[in-house]
Amino acid sequence: MRLPTLNFLSFESRTRHPAALLWFAAFIALQLLAVFALVRYFFRSTWDQQVSSGIGAIVLTGLVCSLLLCFAEYFFHRYLLHIETVRFLRAFCTSHLTHHKLTSIGFDDGTKTVRSKYPICDVARDDKATFPPWGLIPAFAAFTPFFAPFAFSFPHIPILIGGYAAIAIALFLYETVHVAHHLPYDAWWKPKLNNRTFGRVWRAAYGFHQAHHANYRCNLNVAGFFGIPVADLLFGTYKQPDELLLDGAPATKEDARKLTPQPRWPVGWLDRVVFKRRRWMSKRN
After folding, report:
1. Mind listing the pLDDT tens digit for each residue in 67-96?
2. Domain boundaries, the chain
3. Backbone conformation region of residue 262, classed left if phi is above 0, alpha if psi is from -120 to 50, else beta
4. Is the four-CA dihedral 21, 27, 31, 33 of positive or negative sign?
5. Strand, helix or coil for residue 107
6. pTM of model > 0.90
7. DSSP secondary-structure letter at 108?
8. Which residues pair with 107 in a beta bridge?
């Protein structure tokens, strides 16, 4: 059997390998275990104190970190993936905007209908839909300057175990939930939306990310807090379309404008700061 590439959740990998999701989970777990092994090897005393804190403290620390990561995801998505604000992270922005272009949801003024390329049904639309396979490594590295001083100052709080585990879980959820959002409507989503018990929940989940592809200013959480878009709810950027934005469905650009949020502080203020910086960067170029 041919093994999948390291991009386990690509359209090609998922189509050829039914166990691609399990491969991806194992790949994430191996990277997490490698980080744990490094911490244990180089900082054995701190590691032992963190382990001795007990499973309850580890789980609680992981939950707190997961909540904080929900907001980190929100700001990363809003201000780095959709707007080029940091030059050396330009590749992330370019890649993400390519994904939005390939899976765009637009509106035809002539026919007053939706023009959607949202479902990922082939390799072409799948381009840039996932982070690189090595994406977890820079995520670990980015949070280490925050985790390390905390761990050495308060060694009995298992920030290294709970924090790194929360990052791994967040990336796993981001990638898998995002893949699910873009699965074909008729084959995958429609039966779930017709479910009598959970149909409304599935409808909210599907409409949530559809709205983001129609108007990028709303619905920035993907993984959120275990699937709950806490940051969007808190900052007032949570939106749902009146009707699902399916290809050919009746709709106008006014429907897209309805999805434009009026974000609460500090997001509204940060928007102005970031757009001002972006204009400054454009002038320098």
Report:
1. 999 999 999 999 999 999 998 999 999 999
2. 20-125+132-284
3. beta
4. positive
5. strand
6. yes
7. E
8. 114
